[in-house]
Design brief:
Layout lengths: L8 E2 H8 L3 H10 L6 E3 L2 E4 L1 H15 L5 H8 L8 H33 L5 H4 L1 H14 L1
Antiparallel strand pairs: 1-3, 2-3
Helix pairs in contact: 3-4, 4-5
Protein name: HTH merR-type domain-containing protein
Keywords: DNA-binding
GO molecular function: DNA binding; DNA-binding transcription factor activity
């Protein structure tokens, strides 16, 4: 949607300012993620709405929240309709993040223990670590 007197920015400028390659913006256009406001010849131009959408795509995808495919599900225009697929993507993403956070908290606890373990070589000599590793081996085997 182009607003009268809204400044339009050429694809090269947008790519540079958003830290992207022009090819990435073209790919986003092909996927329907960030279509340009207009084209003049072979040059794509972006207005404020498209730049806002690009910022959303970057926030969702580049910051590692969701995959590019899930970003497409979340940003597909449905003209005000409920988006159950989008809500499911959000719920699944939150569940995955929660699992990853739990894994990182557990990993941090192991590293903090090793850092304070009184043995000379905690990675090889720590009895707590050895017991944890034996538990893993027993579970796997």
């Amino acid at each position: 949607m182009v607003v009268v007197n809204e400044p339009l920015h050429p694809i090269g400028e947008v790519a540079r300012r958003f830290g992207l390659r022009v090819s990435a913006l073209r790919y986003y256009d092909e996927l329907g993620l960030v279509p340009p406001a207009e084209r003049r010849g072979t040059v794509r131009y972006y207005g404020r709405e498209e730049l806002r959408r690009l910022a959303l795509v970057q926030r969702l995808h580049r910051e590692g929240m969701v995959t590019l495919a899930d970003t497409a599900v979340l940003t597909t225009d449905r003209h005000g309709e409920e988006q159950p697929a989008g809500r499911q993507v959000l719920a699944d993403t939150i569940a995955g993040m929660t699992r990853r956070i739990d894994e990182l908290v557990a990993a941090r606890a192991v590293l903090e223990h090793l850092l304070t373990c009184p043995t000379a070589d905690p990675v090889r000599q720590c009895s707590k670590l050895r017991a944890d590793l034996d538990e893993i081996v027993d579970r796997v085997m």
